[in-house]
Amino acid sequence: MGFTIKGNSAIQKVLSNCVYAGMIKVPADKKQPDRLVKAIHMAIVSKADFWIAQEMLGNKRPSKTQPEERFPLRGILKCWCGQHMTAGFTKGKRNYYLYYRCIKHTGVNISRIELHKQFKALLDELSFSEPQIKKIRKLVKGKLQDAISEKENSIATKSNQIN
pLDDT tens across 29-41, in order? Predict the structure, then answer.
């Protein structure tokens, strides 16, 4: 009834469509890679269910930052091309050395030691005034309340579906 997609991969096409999860795919441009953004239409399925389906289908989920003690800036730093920088080891003559590098520009390695020194110097120069701190706290609390509200709505919907 109204399902016009035909073929062996019809269900997979529907499950892979981010529009049903209330998102739209924005194609890559010179500044940023392709990405999914929140759409103005209402989602039919939750984002969590969409990503579970993607995982089951074997589609790659957008990378999540998983900083590690040795590489706290991995996934936070961005290259000049807009890609997130990753971290890894490079073998020297006798030892392994820790470096950050762009996902696209694999030939450019930036020493972890030098980068951390520069980042620490930058942080030492930063300071916020009391009104700025209050505004940041207010914005963060608002975003957290929105996230909690969305999670509670999702739980209520799932509970109603189960009942």
Answer: 877 778 888 889 8
